[in-house]
Design goal:
The chain is an alpha/beta fold. It has 4 domains: 2-40 and 48-113 and 247-316, FAD/NAD(P)-binding domain (3-Layer(bba) Sandwich); 120-244, FAD/NAD(P)-binding domain; 336-447, FAD/NAD(P)-binding domain; 453-555, Oxidized Rhodanese, domain 1, CATH 3.40.250.10. Helix 1 packs parallel to helix 8. It is globular and about 90 Å long. The chain starts with a strand and ends with a helix. Pfam families: Pyr_redox_2, Pyr_redox_dim, Rhodanese.
Length: 556
């Protein structure tokens, strides 16, 4: 058997390694048009900011190492220009010599990855101070430019993971950074209210964030020195970085009839097979599917690419591995904040037809007396069966630990009530006695069964519609005077039982405190006293005020 792989990095090399582990009989060949076959794309921003001291740290393996370790023939700077699926032949161009050769295959794996998306306005002209962050070659050029040209101002176009990581690293390197985004929020894979926390963190650290903006005109000949926005704003700059996402490299595959799915990436089954016999697709060129909805999903991450490659290598050599789908789990560090998400966002869940309960859980990552720092967990559950559908977390410490627990729970179809019963590790330096994950499960389970929650968005909608309701602030007088929900009355929890005797039990009632716990206690009191409809404001006044700020910013 002859296995030919087009492309390397995380997916292609994983195919080759797994296939070789399964058998010594197969001939395995890899063609890659780049010079480097194995490197960390995700590590590039940290090389630019010199957290990673040398580019070699990101390129641990080369073609000779791979040949010696796995007996795989790797041809770098070779581009496959044509596939003949009938004859099972490939046409390959040697980019160094210009010569063309023909090769054959028994099994062909497409692992050509994805290319950076270039906004139309930047197409058609070259400038020496515009860069993308996708390959080792691009990383070296950008690093060299910063080192020798010493730019003072940078504009980053795009606010996904790479754009935000580059913003952090350039600020730490002493540059003035402007982040421009066409959409109304940073981080499109999060709900807007959670992304707003990231936006505020960027601003606090000196990044100028411009949302709902598009570039109208580019000024400068050899170098870009000014960008003009469609609303008339001008941005003077010494450096431009494009971080506007990626697009799967499907052209070669489409030319021979390989089917592309609704995401724009190649459609594959659970064995990574395309619609054409003996042709497989893995990594950033292939779409996956959601573990929750079963629908197609495209999240180009090295972890997923590695997994897909291993599955294809196993299947081709007679193994039984199958792709079980993904949740789109991701995490990023922006200055002192970690941001993570898994599963469906609130918007995605509603768009998919779920009737959802939403919880904002604001808790310290560990004991307060050992320096616990606040975590905000937004968790989404299906009201129909209590299943956990997704979570988003922001915080300083412990975000990675909690998102991985929640991703594992969703993968095994856990209900929110199951979270409370998890036997998680506890000691004061690492967690609270009631870990944020346990509390998330407990509070969401309560919300589904007895103690309904109301989000700030829902409350503000009711306020704007002038719905009749009574809103009770259960905090101290000083806290109430400093900041409160619109039209709330102040009744401390200790006075609530007495004051409740004079209140209308049939009127919609919302209780709240600063973050949610005392509001829940007040909700229990009122429900036990016979009040008909009582909601606790999820995340309390703190969450409400943050949402209100975001809404005002959006409307300005």
């Amino acid at each position: 058997m002859k296995i030919v792989i087009i492309g390397s990095v995380a997916a292609g090399t994983s195919v080759a390694a797994k296939a070789r582990r399964n058998t010594e009989e197969a001939e395995i060949v890899v063609y890659d048009q780049d010079k480097d076959i194995s490197y960390s794309v995700c590590g590039i921003p940290y090389f630019i900011g010199e957290e990673v001291e040398s580019i070699e740290k990101l390129t641990p393996r080369n073609a000779p190492w791979f040949k010696k370790r796995y007996n795989v023939d790797i041809f770098t700077e070779h581009r496959v220009t044509h596939i003949d699926p009938i004859k099972k032949q490939l046409q390959i161009l040697d980019l160094q010599t210009g010569q063309t050769k023909i090769d054959t295959y028994d099994a062909l794996v497409l692992a050509m990855g994805a290319s950076p998306v270039i906004p139309d306005i930047f197409i058609g002209k070259q400038w020496s101070n515009i860069f993308q962050v996708r390959t080792i070659g691009q990383a070296e050029l950008l690093h060299s430019f910063i080192q020798f040209q010493q730019p003072k101002r940078a504009v980053i176009v795009g606010a996904g993971f790479i754009g935000l990581e580059m913003a952090e690293q350039l600020v730490k390197s002493g540059l003035e950074v402007t982040l421009i985004q066409r959409a109304k929020q940073v981080m499109k894979h999060m709900d807007e209210d959670m992304a707003y926390r990231v936006e505020e963190n960027l601003r606090m650290n000196g990044v100028r964030v411009l949302l709902n903006r598009e570039i109208k005109e580019i000024m400068g000949e050899d170098q870009i020195n000014r960008l003009i926005i469609k609303n008339g704003e001008t941005l003077d700059t010494d450096l431009v970085i494009l971080a506007t996402g990626v697009s799967p490299n499907t052209q070669l595959a489409q030319e021979v009839g390989v089917e592309v799915g609704s995401t724009g990436a190649i459609k594959v089954n659970t064995k990574m097979q395309t619609n054409i016999n003996d042709i497989y697709a893995v990594g950033d060129i292939a779409e996956s599917y959601s573990l929750i909805t079963g629908g197609p999903i495209y999240r180009p991450l090295g972890s997923t690419a590695n997994k897909m490659g291993r599955i294809a290598g196993d299947v081709i050599t007679g193994g039984t591995l199958e792709h079980r789908g993904i949740l789109g789990t991701g995490i990023v560090r922006i200055f002192d904040m970690a941001i993570a998400q898994t599963g469906l966002t609130e918007k995605e869940a509603r768009d998919a037809g779920f009737d959802v309960a939403v919880l904002y859980n604001i808790k310290p990552d560990k004991a307060d007396y050992l320096g616990g720092k606040e975590l905000t967990i937004k968790a989404i559950a299906d009201k129909a069966d209590g299943r956990l559908l997704g979570a988003q977390i922001t915080g300083v410490n412990g975000v990675d630990k909690r998102i991985d627990v929640l991703a594992t729970a969703i993968s095994f179809h856990a209900k929110v009530e199951d979270l409370f019963h998890l036997d998680l590790a506890y000691a004061p330096p690492f967690a609270t006695t009631k870990d944020p994950v346990l509390y998330t499960g407990m509070a969401l389970d309560n919300a589904l069964k007895k103690n309904p929650l109301m989000t700030p968005e829902e409350l503000i909608e009711k306020q704007e519609a002038n719905e009749e309701m009574q809103i009770i602030d259960t905090r101290s007088r000083q806290q109430y005077a400093a900041s409160s929900v619109k039209n709330a009355i102040h009744i401390p929890l200790v006075d609530l039982r007495e004051k409740a005797l004079t209140m209308d039990k049939n009127k919609l009632t919302i209780t709240y405190c600063n973050k949610g716990v005392t509001g829940n206690a007040a909700q229990n009191v009122l429900l036990n006293l016979g009040f008909k409809e009582v909601y606790n404001l999820s995340g309390g006044n703190k969450n409400y005020q943050l949402y209100f700020q975001m809404k005002q910013r959006t409307e300005d």
